[in-house]
Amino acid sequence: MFICDISILHRYGKQALDETLRPLALTWQEAVLLIALERIPQVDLQLLSQMLQTDKGNVSRLLKSMEHRGLLLRRTLAHDARRKEMVIAPKGESLLPQVQDIMRQWEQRCYQGLSEEQIQQYLSLSKTIIRNIYPGRY
Predict the structure, then answer these.
(1) What average pLDDT score do residues 109-135 get?
(2) In 10 A of CB 59, how many CB atoms?
(3) Which of 15, 21, 99, 129 has the lowest tally of Cβ within 10 angstroms?
(4) CATH of segment(s) 2-105
(5) What is the pTM of this model?
């Protein structure tokens, strides 16, 4: 069943990624947050919570933990002093190349045994499926 496929990919894919990130003392959630903050300036908690499949409170706690560990900095927005933005700290920046490399290796592990054409087909199909079940978000 399709739902079982999703569950297996979700659970064991995250476990495999956590194992590969362990030498950097990061979890898959922290790696996703670092990459998201790098790629999406001023990303909001709503989008981060969707990416991590958890509520905004958990994302806030994770961001605070990463800030405490020196991976992120919280800054007041220039145009609105009531709001803060999270930016990657130098320590987090120094980890980004390794995180991105680990992510590439993990994806290659997931795609092992597939041709480039099959990978592209999978990516196209998964986008369509995501749009079907999560309209307007992808």
Answers:
(1) 92
(2) 21
(3) 15
(4) 1.10.10.10
(5) 0.83
